[in-house]
Amino acid sequence: MSWLGGWVKRGIWLEVAPGREVTGSAQKEEAADRWLLEVFGLPEKLWRRLRHEKQIRLAGDRLRLALFPTREFGIEPRWHELTILYEDEFCLVVHKPAGMPVHPDSSDSGGPITLNHAVAAYYEMNSIETAVRHVHRLDNDTTGAVLYAKNEFALLKLDEQMRTKQIGRRYAALVAGRVSSGLRTIDLPIGKDRHDKQRRRVSPSGQSAVTHVELGAYLGTASLVYLTLETGRTHQIRVHLSHEGHPLLGDTLYGGSRSDFGRQALHGQSLTFRHPLTDEIVEVFDPWPEDFQVLYDRLDNKYI
């Protein structure tokens, strides 16, 4: 993308240099629209709004788009320490600790602090005037990297990547039993459990769910496995591994023992996506949290 060296953020505006394809055209506005949709990759929904609101402007050899308007956070800022794993003008990736939901269940007031509350507080402290927009979620007790879009353009581009399965999520899990090296893919539909509204289960009438499994190490009567998802069903990893006879250590909802670990031993350790502006691959790694590392070391040392 030859124009990438010529972009800059100025307040609410993104300035780009589209080149002679636009500036040399007799019909500059039509050429600009065609370039934005076909070369720049501006989502049509956003292009229509920006055109309607007169927020696309040509100034000499520069094309200006109002991609960074001031927006309300959409959630109350409530401070909690955050570990920032990656940040630029378009994206934010943060570590989600165990026991913290990504977003409130319903009412924003009076409930526990969520990751969205903490991100709003981070935005407030750093004068980032934009809505809090998470791109994906993790279970309350699962740790790992969570991706946020810092403007509507980024959200539309990243949501499309989620829809087309272009965002890679790799998890580490400590599970009961010795997982066979031959277990590579679990392709089983997941539906609601009629007897327990909190649980999900493998069900022929459920939604398609595919989990890829890679054996990391045997730890006596437990195993370290790495998992990547093609789909993002609720509790997908937990349901699939439990169904295969290898519940996550500590996952009492799906057959694990609380005595093994104080929560399910699952960590989202890496996130890979295409940058919404540059289309370059961004890979973010989130180191194992201390409790996960301690459990691994205890299991590893126990069977030396």
From TrEMBL:
It comes from the Bacteria. Its EC number is 5.4.99.-. Keywords: Isomerase. SUPFAM superfamilies: Pseudouridine synthase. It catalyses: a uridine in RNA = a pseudouridine in RNA. CDD domains: PseudoU_synth_RluA_like. Residues 92-243 form the Pseudouridine synthase RsuA/RluA-like domain. Responsible for synthesis of pseudouridine from uracil. NCBIfam families: rluA_subfam. Belongs to the pseudouridine synthase RluA family. This is Pseudouridine synthase. It comes from Paenibacillus zeirhizosphaerae.
